[in-house]
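Work package 3, deliverable 3.1, input record:
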Amino acid sequence: MTPKKQRRLAFAITLLLAGGGAAALAVYALQDNVLFFYSPSDIAAHPEKVPAGRAFRIGGLVEKGSVKRDRGLEIQFVVTDGKNAVPVRYSGVLPDLFREGQGVVALGARGSDGVFTASEVLAKHDERYMPPEVVDALKRSGHWQEGHGSAGAS
Amino acid sequence: MTGELGQLALCLALALSVVQAFSGLFGATRGDVRVMAMGRGAALGSFVFIALAFFTLMFAYVTSDFSVMAVAENSHTAKPLIYKITGVWGNHEGSMVLWMLILGIYSAAIAMSQPEGSDANARLGSRALGVQALIAIAFLVFILLTSDPFLRLYPQPFEGNGLNPLLQDPGLAFHPPLLYLGYVGLSASFSFAAAALLDSRNDAAWVRRARPFAIAAWTALTLGIAGGSWWAYYTLGWGGFWFWDPVENASLMPWLIATALIHSMMASERTGAFKSWTLLLAIAGFSFSLIGTFLVRSGVLNSVHAFANDPRRGLFILMILFVAITSPLVLFAWRAPKLPPGAAFDIVSRETGILLNNLLLTAAAATILIGTLYPLVLDAAEGIKISVGPPYFTATVIPMMALLAVAMPFGPIFLWRRSHFKPAVWSLRFAIAAGVVALCVALAVARPMSLLGMCAVGLGIWLIAGSATDIARRAGDWRRVRLLPATAFTSALAHAGLGVVALGVAGTSVWKSEAIQVVAPHQTMQIGGYTLRLENTERAQGPNYLADRAEFTVFSGGQKIAVLHPEKRSYPVEQTATSESSIRTTGVSDLYVVLGDPQQGGGWVVRAYYNPMAPFIWLGGVIMALAGFTALGARLGAALRSRRQSPNLVSEPAE
């Protein structure tokens, strides 16, 4: 091999190693750090998908009249998609746009008592906007109404 | 009337862009001086008309002309003037006009820097202008067909819908324009690379022309990202500065590629190494900008950045993206066999350092791209909704950045083409010692103990000390530092800036403390060695909002040191609430207080954070941008001097 070819080969091998290494790292990290999204009806239909302690995201509407605050920082509410509902417990400060009857996405895990303990609660960013997963969950449970807040063009 | 004027201006800009594309590309092929000059004139004219459209739109916002639909949907008479002006780009339509305005600025700058005559350099610039015009045509058609900012609304409403209160912040004045200056600025490198491929001459000429634009884009992108992170930090009320939100990733990926590009351009221009690779990076840089535009503007993401959306827009941008990525790559594949090979270099050399930099930065960009697109692909393919959270990105990007930081101080110490490892280590001995000492100090002092935090502190100090070594070595003696030319400081500043950022990131993510408590008036809470006392809360009236405003007195060691006023605002027009955090900064740490919800038994939920070294994150960003300004200033100075001496001479780069 000429020195030029050797250099090109070395360059190609480094590139492949770096690319392969990065891809391996990415795949490895993806396996552990992917969070699935489930609606209350998904959980009712396939409870085996969410064993106690497995982190996932849940979304739906905050059921009207379900928000209870005890001792200030402990908050309980119910997330519903119209067909099924899941109780949620959260300790901390809720986002500014968290309201009853509005869309919400919570991140956390279910306990053995079936209560979802949230580590993070996300509400929508503004009045016109609803998290797309929630829109989708409501559409699947047949409880989507235009006027809930449109996710599409306004 | 103004609406029609703006629309007409956009159409005229489109017509001139068509002229620019034809005369730029065919003028260069025929070597016709007059046709090429026409392309230049069309670029300037097109810029003038886009600017006219932009300011017409701004006029409609400032005068609250609700017969224009975009204004009615995104503005309100009660909004303060500054937010009427910045509200122009606080929505999809207006932000696309800003995007075009900045593309016009870069095209005009290329036209202004175009040499007279019909030599190879003039033909190169002319083709680049032609490619710029093709991009402009695509986006002007996109605006006119799917996102007309001047669309009329009849009957005209009496009042507008207002602007999302999260965007009613001075951050909207600087963050999007800077980010766009960066995103769109990468189009110039893209166009010059495409022009070089069309020319089928791959010497360093295109790099010489494109490099100032790449540096300008990188500088603006650095400031835009740092500014956006600061905005998120003080406005979102979580005390965090980076969330690995897909839209943030969309700005970080072009930054990583642009960083790789300005390094690889340096090697290409200086020694002729990495010729083909630099071409590919220039194409990739703008492609990532377009991917970012697609992610933000198509509605596939849910984010504060994604305004109300329309699927047609996504499809259109996807088409632009497809053509813009594939056509230069096809051109590259066709021309590549004929391209001369890049210059050789030894295994220990500055080029090897730059190669490592490029590998790590592109690999980081690629892993971020995978993490950002994976949920979209999985949703589209199987309807499974997942999200990829911060743990993925920290697990992939942090190790690569750490490796990069270990290698960075060696780059400027190594010589071009052939260097030696041992003398480089020897000249960096003090920097190595400083890094190790910093790591040990972090191990001994900082609690809780964190391997990641310790490494970040050690690497941060290593980068800063490595930069100091570089400057000392160039000067030979510390007393002669002020005799050094400005360009001697650019890499030192940029590398040290990243070191400062590393310190800030470590402090804020590893050693912050957080307290949440219900506090009634005259009660206190403790955080990070400070005592906060809630004095009172009052109702306050803003220009377009009502607020609950709390007053906290901050005590440190029994001494009253500050008064903080966090607010909880509610905007009646938008029917939305926001929290305004109040921050006391010492320059090396932040005390951050947010007012939460009122409690039934009296008292308020209060969140407080103590963020050590948080200001370093943005200070580091500014230092990095300063490096960009230094490099640009030196080039501009050299260009002006040489133009004064002989008007037809092409300026040699200062570096």
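The domain at 37-141 of chain A is CATH 2.40.50.140 (OB fold (Dihydrolipoamide Acetyltransferase, E2P)).
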